[in-house]
Write a structure and sequence with these properties.
- The mean pLDDT is 89.
- With 172 residues, the chain is α+β, with helices and mostly antiparallel strands.
- It is built from 1 helix and 7 strands; from the N terminus they run H-E-E-E-E-E-E-E.
- It has 2 domains: 42 residues; 118 residues, Sandwich (Jelly Rolls), CATH 2.60.120.
- Bound molecules: calcium ion.
- The site of calcium ion has 8 residues, from strand 7.
- Calcium ion binds next to strand 7.
């Protein structure tokens, strides 16, 4: 790797040695910043974006579940007006998952769970929200591997159904 191709100077020149140390520091700092940027971007990648989704119901045709993972905060999924309801995204393969962000429309969930699975048969509750208030809710939990991420709504916060502008999944 060219980044680390540093040539050790001969010990007789103090100036050269200083220059060598300075050069090392610059390359080291660059490598650290580059790694941080790469890791930062990875953590901020929305794993749910444009992935296959299914839901327990749809309020009407223009409010399909796909609209909650299309990356557009002006389009949304909405369920029918009763409990319980669910919404599931298939990440395509097993990924590390540690955070879900829900951008609620005014039809928010009051009591709901976030569940993870690798086979769609065995589900693990990783988060229980008992006092949801809508808006943008950031839901963090211990990071673990999963392919399927499910929202399971027990109790609605309004007389409407459940409705997300966006449902996002992150590594951490
Ligand atoms: Ca949307």
């Amino acid at each position: 790797m060219r980044l680390f191709s540093l040539r050790m100077p001969r010990p007789e020149s103090r100036g050269e040695f200083k220059q060598f140390v300075g050069s090392c520091m610059k390359k080291y700092c660059f490598a650290v910043l580059l790694s941080a940027a790469v890791l930062g971007i990875a953590a901020e990648e929305n794993l749910a974006l444009k992935k296959p989704v299914t839901a327990s119901s749809v309020e009407r045709k223009t409010l399909e579940p796909e609209l909650a993972v299309d990356g557009n905060l002006k389009t949304r999924w909405a369920s029918q007006f009763n409990d319980p309801q669910w919404f599931m995204v298939d990440l395509g393969r097993v990924r590390k998952v540690g955070r879900v962000v829900i951008h609620w429309e005014k039809a928010f969930g009051k009591r709901y769970k976030i569940q993870l699975s690798s086979d769609q048969k065995h589900w693990k509750d990783v988060l229980l929200k008992e006092n949801g208030i809508g808006g943008k809710e950031t839901l963090t939990f211990p990071q673990q591997e999963a392919r399927y991420v499910r929202f399971a709504g027990d109790s609605r916060g309004s007389w409407n159904g459940y409705s997300f502008w966006e449902f996002q999944v992150f590594e951490k």
